[in-house]
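Hi R.,

Here's the chain you asked about this morning:
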Amino acid sequence: MEGSRFALAALGCMTLMASSALLAMLWFVDPAFADTWTLGVFYLSTFVALAGVFAWIFLFLRGNVGRARRPLIYFFPDALRQGAFVAALVAASLLLQRAGWLNLGTMAALVAAAFFTEVAFTRKRRVS
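And the predicted structure, written out as tokens:
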């Protein structure tokens, strides 16, 4: 049980640190004068913060909605993976928007890639 508390505490710490880094970058960095490293840190902190936030949302939804009440750690691997997929979609959309390549086709391709990757992970877990 101690490892499960550590995993949830690490997720909470990661989410808070990445969210504060993202807010600091939004507040203090001027995107017109940002270099490649600064933009890389921005997109990385966006991904990590959103992955943590969505993982917590998925954890609480799965843990509190439905008939079976289970500890949150039971849903941790799935929630973390799905939170990372949603965050990757948002971060990739921001990158494509900045490059001027975001359109309905590229967004559909991103969503399809995330969907098929999720299907592959879900199928692999059921087989094992």
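The chain has a mean pLDDT of 91.

Let me know if you need anything else.
M.
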